[in-house]
Amino acid sequence: MSRSIHDIAIRAAEAPPKARQTNYPEPFAARVAGRCKQPLGDLFGLKNFGINLTQLAPGAVSALRHAHSTQDEFIYILQGRPVLITDEGETPLQPGMCAGFAAGTGNAHHMVNRGDDKVVYIEVGDRSPGDRATYPDDDLQAMLDAQGQWVFTRKDGSPY
CA-CA distances (angstroms) from residue 103 to 72, 93, 106? Predict the structure, then answer.
């Protein structure tokens, strides 16, 4: 069976966007409006880690500020100047800069596009079974279930 070039390589910018741009329940889903993720690793059947080409419109945020229990994350800025917000404070980023977020540190993070131009970046995260995410600024927590889907609850465990 022969493979086409599209099975081997693509232009990342031409990857289809996620059909559903967020898994957050309302009222949180609306807060990531203006974010567009194009999954890249899924196109090639990668199972151990995910890669997204992500765009943030002016005013958009990458995610709610969060920290993972077992998942490492990495970002590389291609275009634009987002502000990275962590427990240490705010760090302006620019093209060519990268940041990593080690699992289990509890150091919550996200990026905000406060500029007038879109931000484009690559994000990489592993797919650790049993991962949990905490959201220090919101009444939200998440757990990765056996099917690889995020299940969101309030901090007291009650469902949304």
Answer: 5, 21, 8
